[in-house]
Fold these 4 entries.
Entry 1:
Amino acid sequence: MEKKNGKRKIYMVIMRGLMGILFIMSYVLVKGIPNITWDLLSTTPSYIDGSIGILPDILNTIYIIIAALAIVIPLGAGAAVYLTEYAGNKKIVSVIEYAAETLSGIPSIIYGLVGMLFFCQFLNMQTSLLAGALTLVIMNLPTVMRTTQESLKTVPQSYREGAFGLGAGKWRMIRTVVLPGCIDGIITGCILSVGRILGESAALLFTAGVAHALNGFFEGLNSSGATLTVALYFYAKERGEFGVAFAIAAILMVLTLLVNLLAMLVGESFKRRRNT
Amino acid sequence: MITVKDLCLWYGNTQALHHINMDIPEKAITALIGPSGCGKSTFLKTLNRMNDLIPGIRITGEVCYNEKNIFSPDVDVNMLRKEIGMVFQKPNPFPMSIYDNIAYGPRTHGITSRVKLDDIVERSLRDAAIWDEVKDRLRKNALGLSGGQQQRLCIARALAVSPDVLLMDEPTSALDPISTSKIEELAISLKEKYTIIIVTHNMQQAVRISDKVAFFLLGEMIEYNDAETIFSMPSDKRTEDYITGRFG
Ligand SMILES: Nc1ncnc2c1ncn2[C@@H]1O[C@H](COP(=O)(O)OP(=O)(O)OP(=O)(O)O)[C@@H](O)[C@H]1O
Ligand SMILES: [Mg+2]
């Protein structure tokens, strides 16, 4: 009887939590979707006719994701390969793994502060998407590294022995046998990073800024620009434009759902491929 | 062809091989027998330096292959392993197509011509007596084969780099009796072209296929002789005890 009651209570708590989440989600969608118009998506904000468009923010988000991933994937996957396949000193490896673990728990605003001091001021990049992207690289490096490492560990030792036994050198062995086996880890790391970048505001406020100019990719990297999440903060807090803010919120929420769904699908398909 | 002189090997501080001396004949099957943990695999892996990968390993003595010490600094380990191939206890095909598995070695050593590769793949699969079973599914994933087929595929993969010597570490211990006898027949047919050194726990198998037998115990080689001599009149009491099943 006692046990049954306990189970019931837990069930109730979970249900209440789920209802809360559902409520927030539907509230944002109901408030946001009516405000999503083609004009909003396809124009830049103009002070002259007082209109707001989030095209620059959408582009900035895409640019910063591309730039951050382009740097963080080779860096993170490379570090993971080095640590698991080359590094001889296991103590140093575990210290680095521990540091990475710790790094991923630090509040993002601290990354923003450090990024601002180091990239924007010390390296003189000013407030720019590039500085923001580099800050995101540091934030997501541990994630990509860890997911890659985890999947490297699932590559059976016998594959490595098989390749060596045929006279393959270390680098050929890694390229042909190890890396194909850890693609799933790299992709998982990417997707998690994209999700995190979509949701990031604090670190980017400091480093990438809040401008809304329409730029090409390289031009954009060198200038200040708001991502969708930063724009959400900006329109809600500085301008009191809650309609726009909710529209962005709805877009972000849908995107986040899609990213998570993608992560799940990718994980599933790799699991299936591994089992056949 | 392979001459082992006073070989000792340590894993860290524990000595796993003690002063091994042995002359391994060409184009014959040499079987290594002995109880579990006596150093058979360790010895086998020393012959193509597969245990270079193990941290904390130390080796003294010589292994001469074609009159050259394989531990001398100017030996190219990758070339050595091309000439002294290895088949492992558990079949370990790569998660690629059957074709790519066989072509892996030749590609590693610089063969890119499609015609040549096709030829090597067919010849290796024929030599490993598995061609008829896989010729219609060369592009299918090798992991879809049965255990016995996978092991013959691994033998074909090893043959594809045209080695001189084939090291086999209990190649049939994970297989059913039918696959086992296929691999035994295969080994016998391969000894026309290759020198084979095989570790086995199965006395009958050693009787059936080997020309020479070496008996290992606690990291020492106790006795090494023609298979018939070892099995009919072993000169050491411990060998006799082992092959008559008194321990092991
Ligand atoms: N990587 C290693 N590190 C430390 N010790 C090892 C290592 N590999 C093997 N040994 C030890 O060396 C000894 C010989 O091992 P080996 O694997 O060569 O035996 P084996 O004769 O092949 O046994 P089995 O018949 O069970 O395969 C054993 O005592 C084993 O514990
Ligand atoms: Mg063994």
Entry 2:
Amino acid sequence: MIGADAIIKCLEAENIEVVFGYPGMAIAPFFNSIRDSSIRPILVRSEQNAAHAASGHARINGKAAVCVVTSGPGATNVITGIATAFADSIPLVCITGQVNSELIGSDVFQEADITGAVESFVKYSYLVKDANDIPRIFKEAFFIANTGRRGPVVIDIPVDVQLATVKNYSYPAEITMRTYKPTVKGHAVQIKKVTGELARAKRPIICVGGGIHLSGAASELRDFAERYQVPVVSTMMGIGALPTRHPLYFGMVGNNGKNYANRALDESDLLIMVGARLADRAVNRPEHITKGKILIHIDVDTAEIGKNAGPTIPLVGDAKQIFHQLRELECELTIKHDDWVTTLENYRETMKRTRTPNPAYVDPAVFIRLLADKMTDDSIYVADVGQNQIWSCTYYIVRGGRFLTSGGMGTMGYALPAAMGAKVAAPDRQVVAVCGDGGFQMSMMELATICQHDIPVKIIVFKNNSLGLVREYQHHAYDDRYSCVDLDGSPDLCQIAAAYGLTFLRLHDMNEAEMMIDSFLANDKSVLMECMIDPLDLVKER
Amino acid sequence: MKRIYSVFVENRPGVLCKVTGLFSRRDFNIDSLAVGETEDPSISCMTIVSSGDIRTVEQIEKQLNKKLDIIKVKTFDELSCVSRELILVKVRIKKDRDNRREIMEICELLSAEIVDMSKNQMMIQMCDTTERISLLIKMLQSISIVEVARTGTLALSKCTD
Ligand SMILES: Cc1ncc(C[n+]2csc(CCOP(=O)(O)OP(=O)(O)O)c2C)c(N)n1
């Protein structure tokens, strides 16, 4: 057995069924060995999208997905995808080919120091020097990616190591790493403090982030919120942790969030943050958040607690575990929260923003709600970046499915490849990607991938012929002095769809919206649907 | 505020770079750095002196603990540890040799040692706290320093019963 065979064996041992990748000389042994295995390689059209596709796959499958690329330009192309996954704590294992070990450091053809380059966006990285280390390194890599605060791990493997003989291959059953022991269980004393505070609180609120999804704690969260009647808000990454229409859910917080969600946060006297970073996008001036309230911060990563705002009660551990531990401690509330919930319901009713849509175009707000209502209960909605993302966050209704987006990095072009990965992970679920015409053009080469590998993804492009969110920013901040936001020269999407043999739909205004959404969703193949959006529309009217 | 971190790491290539990279990436200061093997050759100890507000010095410890090549981090303030630096200073002896006495007096006062000498130069060694080492440099500056080599701070927590 050679190194490349050992890699495949390791992936099989980790129950990996699919890899997203792009070949090259330095990873040729791997792509040769994969032919003898049942692992399905999916050839993408650009390496960045291999990582995004793996990210979509991992988020739906609940464990690390794999992308495989070659050395040099292949490896550097994948960096944005790795950084995007890192910012949202998505577990990935990214295998990169490398030049011959003896040549490392001599700047030969297609050599790039990838482990050096990605150091600040990976949870860990390896440069494999001995083929006999492959089983241990893969075992560790998957363990690292899938535990604690999830994240991407890079394994860089020189081509000669892929070709070297592996003696006595065996996949280790156990991990022995003296440097890595993630905390899973919450500290009993801290757990007690949480119930103590909850019992006393008049206006408690839970703010959830992406950590709920990563730890698979949605039902535990729901159980906790319902049992104690605690209202819930979420960050962008936390959307869908509680169904949008759950009576205790009060929307997304932050500068692009719901004003009633922010008000709820402000007026609470006990804030329980779970699996959220308290970052600038979610919380305006995090340092002020502790004023007049008790802050409990629950996170699997100790370093997130107290990084942006001082918590009153830090609680390190996995969200699911901690909800279970909280469940075991009976908590007698001294105060009912009914009045508080009623107040928030009142805010939710009266503080709704009104829009003034232009009837000559598709109104994204109404369109997204309509689409959400017609999508299946367990469907997956993937939002890109820009105005379309903010509209998606604001108007999409999650019932039992998932809402995916690039929250931490805000990487344009994420939606299409991530939707592709999600669809591969859940072929029976409806998957819809919604992007702007700018973001779509950053990844539209992947239309070929979905055709080649028969991955029926539904794609919606909000066409406003501009980089809408930047245009909106220039409108507010530069008094309409527009610079480089016009997308003239973009292709006719009808012809693009035809070129790939995809069904195409174009929606001009809301008149035919219902009918068109029905036929869009009814089609069991990939469909490209273009919605004409008013270029002057704003996510925020000031 | 000042903090001294004893960072025990896997003794492998690239680890020093990862640790210092963390400091630059997060805009943490490194006031001084010293690295060496411990009694266990598979483990190195990096002694890092840094400073910042309370949130920063806490973050440094937490971020260090997150790095997967780091086995253990011990953090001290200056009062709870014994810290030392080593310095070697080469000074020029004047043609008429009338500064030799002065150099020797400074060494005597600060318990520094003369470790090498030629007709025109003298090398002084001193192992002491950062403050006293700085004092030595200040005193010798008036005499004409040729060159200086100085380690970072080394520190261990004070002995316990
Ligand atoms: C890769 C990348 N480059 C640049 C940006 C900055 N940016 C944020 S939103 C945006 C405009 C997006 O335009 P479009 O995809 O057409 O969506 P719209 O805002 O019009 O809905 C840009 C350029 C980004 N987020 N990602």
Entry 3:
Amino acid sequence: MSAALLEADNIVHFLGHGAGRVQVLKGVSLSLRGGELVLLMGPSGSGKTTLLSIMGCLMSPAEGTVRVAGQSIAEADAEMLAKLRRDRIGFIFQSYHLFPTLTAEENIQLALDVRGERSRSAKKAARDVLATVGLAHKRRSFPLELSGGEQQRIAVARAIVGKPSAILADEPTGALDAENGQAIMRLLADIAKDPSRAVLVVTHDPRTLPFADRIVHIEDGRIVREETANPARKVANS
Amino acid sequence: MSLKFRLASRNLFHDRLRFIATIIGIVFSIVLVTVQMGLYVGFRQMVTTMIDHAGADLWIIPAGTKCFEDPSLLDERQRFRALAVNGVAEVTSVVIGYAQWRLPNRTTTPVFMVGSELNGLGLHPWNVVAGRTDDLAIPGAVAVEQSYLPRLGVSGPGDKAEIRDRSVQVAAVTKGIRSFTTTPYVFTELDRARLSTGTPSNKASYLLVRVAPNADVDQVRRDLRAGLTDVEVLTGNEFRNRSRSFWLFGTGAGAALFAGALLGFIVGTVIVAQTLYSSTKDHLNEFATLRAIGSPGRYIYEVIIWQAVLSAIIGFSGAAAIGAIVARMTAESALQVVVTPALTVALLLLTLVMCVGSAIAAIAKVVRIDPTLVFTR
Ligand SMILES: Nc1ncnc2c1ncn2[C@@H]1O[C@H](COP(=O)(O)OP(=O)(O)OP(=O)(O)O)[C@@H](O)[C@H]1O
Ligand SMILES: [Mg+2]
């Protein structure tokens, strides 16, 4: 196993204000290493999304340390966190969050555009990932003209086009049927074959299990169990 | 076309109804500002039109004169004293004042007489469209403004009327010499103007001075001031400014026009701010997504500002078209809306400032956007 791309060390976090303030994470440590696909599973309200947000540099934890490529982000301000995200992290969301007024191709280009990449090669990169997710023929379609599975594939393409080292996905198959869910997981597992990249997937979906290298169980803000997948049973690496 | 701009324009046009409401808001507000400022420019030009056309280097005016139309008198002996000053090439008298014009049908209407020597320096009619200026030498001849012909009960050169029981005859017709007081200007020869206005023959309203080509105007003015009594000696510019500040600010007319323009500006700003803000709120998800995928704050602000700039340009184009129509429609009226190129540029800048300024509320909304919204929506 290679060095940790993303590392959460003893994270404590609270959400809400006043009487509604709850301790959502109660000392969580999790690291994501190159070449692995990790599933984060647990009951609703156990803190999965919160942990993903913190590891994805979308918010800073109340206590504990997050390290990106070995560097602590404790001192980073909002703009520096944004830079870390665009340089190193790709996100996939349950509800896709594509831009309805942009075409499939433009949605992917946008991820490069925010990084200041506007050259011809950026356009080519967008087309290439569109082909990778099998939607080259839909490049001029708007999100509303695509099925849920196709929209999520566009979202995957957007997440990977900038070649981030970590892909974080929150219930990426939650809104999809079995077939489309499999297709998305296969794409993510393929990315995780690259030893310089890793994928963390928050999921409830047992159908994602065969794609995992490692499964982390969280309950009530604590990691309760971790299992390494049996390589023999793993489909993606077959 | 940059993606940022594409996103901005599509977001803007996406909600048609809101887009149309925004544009109507901008158009109305800028048309209001245009009309007010156009009236101001027209007013400003009109109050100094006589001074502009006199072509005098210096004006000798009765002490305390507030504006061109202020009918006080000075002694004509001053004219000979002025002529004796070194560097003075020419001094000529001008007589102005109100008179009653008796129409052929025996009713009367007030007019404003402008009398000066027919040759050389003086206040002669310009833009003559019928008759001849030279014919003012004929006894009783006057020049009148075309747009006032019906009011004066005459139809063109040769027609007759009366002033102070003396017959006058139209010798020339001008176009576009209007007074904002709406009292028609009537040009005539100096002594005839004296008779019409009841001005004694040894008095004049103003003395116009032409300075010799090689003389220093400031020096001549100092010498004139020293040599003359009960008068002020002003350059054309100074007299213009004095007339303007009297009519525009002494009377409150200018302040009223500016207040109207300010109102238009405020209404426009509020409308644009409100629609940009609600548009931004509707697209908050997208802005949160942009933030989540690591977009710099600047990128998001630029999307919003592009929306503001686009709205400004489209709204301004509509307002400029309407402004041009208003200017054409009022061209013949007593109070003209004058839209100069400089005013057009100023209005475009104002529209941009208004729209971009309005974006501040929307930007304030996204500046603290929580990117984790993307997980909950
Ligand atoms: N803004 C908030 N204020 C107060 N409590 C919150 C807030 N947001 C989330 N929580 C609580 O924090 C806990 C963890 O939330 P989180 O979204 O991380 O759970 P999750 O494991 O992702 O759940 P799910 O599987 O339903 O998505 C939950 O109990 C939730 O009710
Ligand atoms: Mg969740």
Entry 4:
Amino acid sequence: MRHILSMLVENESGALSRIAGLFSARGYNIESLTVAPTDEPTLSRMTLVTSGNDDIVEQIKKQLNKLIDVVKLQDLSEGEHIEREMMLVKLRATRDDRDELMRLVDIFRAKVIDVTDVSYVVELTGASKKLDAFIKAVPEGLIIEVVRSGPTGISRGEKGLTV
Amino acid sequence: MPDQPAPGDSSNPANALMQLSGAEITVQALIDEGVETVFGYPGGAVLHIYDALFKRDEIKHILVRHEQGASHAADGYARATGKVGVCLVTSGPGATNAVTGIATAYMDSIPMVVLTGQVPTPVIGSDAFQEVDTVGITRPCVKHNFLVKRVEDLALTIKKAFYIAKSGRPGPVVVDIPKDVTDPNIKIPYQYPVDVHLRSYSPAQRGHHGQIKRAVEKLLAAKRPVFYTGGGVVLGDAAEALTTLVRQLGYPITSTLMGLGAYPMTDKQFLGMLGMHGTYEANMAMHETDCLIAIGARFDDRVTGKIEHFCPHAEIIHVDVDPSSISKTVKVHVPIVGPVQSVLEDMLAVLEDLGGQPDRDALTAWWQQIDQWRGVDCLRYDRTSQVIKPQFAVETLYKVTNGDLYLTSDVGQHQMFAAQFYPFDKPRRWINSGGLGTMGFGLPAAMGVQIAHPDAPVACISGEASILMCIQEMATCKQYDLPIKVILLNNGYMGMVRQWQEFFYESRYAHSYVDALPDFVHLAESFGHVGMRVEKPDELEAAMREAFGMKDRFVFLDVVVDPTENVYPMICAGKGHHEMELPPTMSERELA
Ligand SMILES: Cc1cc2nc3c(=O)[nH]c(=O)nc-3n(C[C@H](O)[C@H](O)[C@H](O)COP(=O)(O)OP(=O)(O)OC[C@H]3O[C@@H](n4cnc5c(N)ncnc54)[C@H](O)[C@@H]3O)c2cc1C
Ligand SMILES: Cc1ncc(C[n+]2csc(CCOP(=O)(O)OP(=O)(O)O)c2C)c(N)n1
Ligand SMILES: [Mg+2]
């Protein structure tokens, strides 16, 4: 099963490699990993998507918690939460395809943020599934490049992941 | 020291403002941490630190002959005392040489602080002379590591390193110190932190009361209970509490290789070691038990055998300070996260509160069953042999030392024979590399033990292949007059490898014959030690007595043992506890 893990980690140079190293050393799956500083400069927030059966995910969480640099960990999949991912897509957009592409952009509430004679760059934010759906919907042969941030997430309600 | 007060001595208020360089801070922090001994080897990146060390005599520095020796010696020191072992090595090759010892300590959860020199911060990342990414290389085999980038961070980092190394589940911590951080010309005010708090690290202090109560109830209700204890009992200094609880309940107990001695092995409730080379009675009890309590043990694959066959009838209670040890390979019914010592105390208290008694009839029947298994005599060997059997050598060692010995080991058959035939009655007496299985561990580890306990008898049991991996440390033993006794079970083979080749590769002994061996007697002599060799069973005891009689000499006793002997019992790959290979019987031996 897919799990989205959210972590507060010490904002130190080694922290990221400790986490990445843990996954490779123990053979755990890692689908995506995003990391950036938070409002608290000494902390980074990391969102990691992994998958495995319950026992493996349990072990992954225990091993992550064991790392000295991991301050707090929450398995967002265990409760109500919101996930968002951002995607930039470069599309081949010549005269003939422009109408069709604009319709898609509208339907998916995306934005065209760069235009040339022959291309668009489209920005789209949403749940990862929505991003998948957009890519599927683009007519064949028109995608030049796809950049995705990997999902980030936050739990619903008033409780926050803080120290 | 000259007549001025020691820097950093907090009893002197004038010292609150003591100005120290990074090198001096490193040394002073070790002193303030209570470190008495450092095992090390100098080199460019740590020369400022060595210079600071030179001026202070509160710390004894033991100069090893290879940095692997330094890390194993610090490890042996830690295992024998429970204190944090410390070593100091230079950057690059100094650090990489120490890695085997760091990984060894990591696998067995040994508290250690390793100070490594690093190239100066401005040149880090430029492939400078003797630069390696020490933090990167050691990351997967340390509990934690640090690169100290500013001299202002040095004292606090060292404080954190010691705290992390010894608390919770212990382990090695590396502190990588660039040379410019130890610059003797840059002095800053020094104060060693009294306390340290890490917001991201707070090991469990007590077990959950409700879970402890549940565990005790299950134990009392059990018909065929077994205690399965491990290195955690030794690490957590809980031998006494364990012994009290086990005696009070009257239940059988078995231990992993790492836990031997935590419960007196000569006691009748002790079933011997369990696992791959464990006793028949211990493994059968595991197979038949209806209630298993694991304490400070981590369900290693050498212990469980095939998981599907592991304790098929049991409810399992597991006490461990590290949550990630619980239900890692075997599903546990009653997990208790906490330090063994406090959990055992709580269990004893709950037991008293409940006032319950074990089921005496069931227990009697259970012991009858166990006695039947004991009757199999699974550790039998040919006692009439005209060549020295390794088992006989260990039994003789036990006899000669009256069971009162610190025994370190290398890795191989000799290690297993020692575990099977030398019953330790106290913890921290049996010192070996279990998790990593590092050949070369024994001799340097014995140095650490002997330095920690200068007046105690210390021996290292080894094989002719293992001993050569750190043989250079005989020079260290000479320099510091360490009266260690090396008991070499010389079978001419990498016996453990040869055994596997005999069993699983139709006796194709690919590169397991140890050719071109040195003359160990002369080798020892050339290092300034006493060398002895015995070849006959009836000469062994006298030789050992002579060796141990030389109380102030390092003696290397080369014992020529049967090259064909195998370690039994054995659970082969893919088998369960009930499917052991037993040693051949007398008549089978005669047939062969
Ligand atoms: C050639 C060879 C053969 C071997 N054969 C066998 C064999 O037949 N049988 C066998 O048993 N082993 C054998 N081993 C050793 C084996 O590989 C493992 O090292 C060993 O079984 C692990 O022991 P342990 O479970 O006690 O764990 P350890 O490695 O000692 O781990 C200790 C556990 O206790 C926990 N702990 C630490 N401190 C505390 C505390 N204060 N409170 C609570 N918990 C704590 C830790 O978190 C950890 O889970 C062999 C090794 C070699 C090299
Ligand atoms: C550093 C290292 N290399 C290889 C091994 C694999 N290994 C395990 S036991 C063994 C043979 C040990 O031979 P010896 O020291 O003579 O002991 P014996 O088994 O003969 O008693 C080997 C090579 C190891 N454990 N450690
Ligand atoms: Mg050998």
